[in-house]
Amino acid sequence: MTPEMAINITRLSVAFSFCWPVPASSSKGRVVFMKIVLVVTTISGFVIVLLLMYGAYVHFGDLILTSKCVCLTMCVSQFVVQTIICLVKYETLQHVVDELMTYVKQAQQYERDIFCTYIDKCNRFYGGYIAVVYTTLIAFLLGPLIVPVPFPLDAEYPFSVNYTPVYVILYFHQAFICFQSAGHTCMSLFAALLLFFTVARFECLAMEFEKSRNIDMLIVCIKKQLYLRRYEYILQRRKYK
């Protein structure tokens, strides 16, 4: 598997989260549009959180339904919080991802070999993880066809949902929220991708240090190390904030 393929698979796995940033070279209008999309999805998710909380209140006497509502509330709340973080850190994400894409395009063969070594170590695990997440999602969305429940989520609405157009709209809204939650579940792969490539770049830099034969080459390597340390620092801030 090539580095480009690993990046594209990761990007597709988180596509429904809308958190993979557009290139920094994109027009201002496109960036603003993507931020608006993130705001809209945040509001959409927050509405579902409120409806799930209302569902927990309505079914308070039913331990199973209440527990399901609480668990689903936590799941959707996670994607709401992650979306807000990605919105606030959008420019930082653009810089980090652009740096990744540029480096991969300009990488020499020995650097690509190191990247592929890291990818081969975990591609089956992460590929299986993505497959399990989206297979579970499809099974979850098809649940109302098998079990006697009207919607995939146990949200309660303060109005009648028996009218067919209303039911269809609400069902697709919940399905979209579920796809977004799956995308955010795969956000850990996004972070792992960035960290793996950073580690691989340190290994590439170590090889450059070994090949240094004079002061000029050593100075170049030190400058690369300082730049890479700053890049790592940005990733660490994004990871823990």
Describe this structure as you would to a colleague.
The chain contains 9 helices and no strands. It has one domain. It has helices at residues 3-13, 28-58, 63-88, 90-106, 109-141, 143-146, 164-185, 187-211, 215-240. It is elongated and about 75 Å long. It is mainly α.
Overall radius of gyration: 22 Å
Total separate domains: 1
Query: Count of helical segments?
Result: 9
Strand content: under 5%
Summarize the structure.
This protein has 241 residues and is mainly α. The chain is built from nine helices and no strands.
Detail the topology: elements first, then pairings.
Elements lengths: L2 H11 L14 H31 L4 H26 L1 H17 L2 H33 L1 H4 L17 H22 L1 H25 L3 H26 L1
Helix pairs in contact: 1-8, 2-3, 3-7, 5-7, 5-8, 8-9
Search tags:
transmembrane helix, 9 helices, single chain, mainly alpha, 241 residues
